């Protein structure tokens, strides 16, 4: 396992390419399997609107049927936490674009009003991953 961040063992060239995006969705509505697959596809398409980004390194976590209150009500709502694991920042324009895209995706697929969806963006410079013994099997490292 490699632990990245805090200036450990990697030169700057390697640090720029080693990152992994993760979208964590928490909602109080149920997400059936077919809707989960549809939402996964929509989120991946949105992520790929950021130049050079591909679904290949994107992790998506969906936590449905959560006890959730927004503005004092438990009507359909969602919290989207978008994390970039690694020393990388996609910039404010891409964050703004992705927030709008993610809200559209959840609204269209799950029927949640955009006004009841909150999106947070985090950069996580310290993270871990398991080294693949033969990275050529999966192509180049994420960028």
UniProtKB/TrEMBL annotation:
UniProt xrefs under Gene3D superfamilies: Macrophage Migration Inhibitory Factor
Major localization listed first in the record, in broad terms: secreted
One Gene Ontology CC term in the entry: extracellular space
Reaction(s) catalysed by this chain's protein: L-dopachrome = 5,6-dihydroxyindole-2-carboxylate; 3-phenylpyruvate = enol-phenylpyruvate
Keywords: Cytokine, Isomerase, Secreted
SUPFAM superfamilies according to UniProt: Tautomerase/MIF
Record-listed E.C. numbers: 5.3.2.1, 5.3.3.12
Localisation: Secreted
Gene Ontology molecular function terms on file: cytokine activity; dopachrome isomerase activity; phenylpyruvate tautomerase activity
Superkingdom assignment: Bacteria
PANTHER family the UniProt entry points to: D-DOPACHROME DECARBOXYLASE (PTHR11954), MACROPHAGE MIGRATION INHIBITORY FACTOR (PTHR11954:SF6)
Protein name: L-dopachrome isomerase
């Amino acid at each position: 396992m490699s632990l990245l961040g805090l200036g450990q063992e990697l030169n700057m060239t390697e640090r720029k390419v080693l990152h992994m995006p993760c979208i964590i969705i928490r909602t109080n509505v149920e997400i059936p399997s077919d809707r989960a697959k549809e939402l996964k596809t929509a989120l991946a398409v949105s992520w790929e609107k950021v130049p050079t980004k591909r679904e290949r390194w994107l992790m998506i976590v969906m936590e449905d049927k959560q006890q959730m209150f927004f503005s004092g009500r438990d009507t359909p709502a969602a919290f989207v936490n978008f994390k970039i694991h690694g020393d990388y920042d996609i910039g404010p324009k891409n964050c703004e674009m992705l927030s709008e895209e993610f809200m559209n995706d959840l609204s269209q697929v799950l029927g949640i009003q955009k006004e009841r969806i909150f999106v947070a963006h985090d950069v996580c410079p310290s993270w871990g991953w398991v080294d693949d013994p033969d990275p050529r099997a999966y192509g180049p490292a994420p960028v």
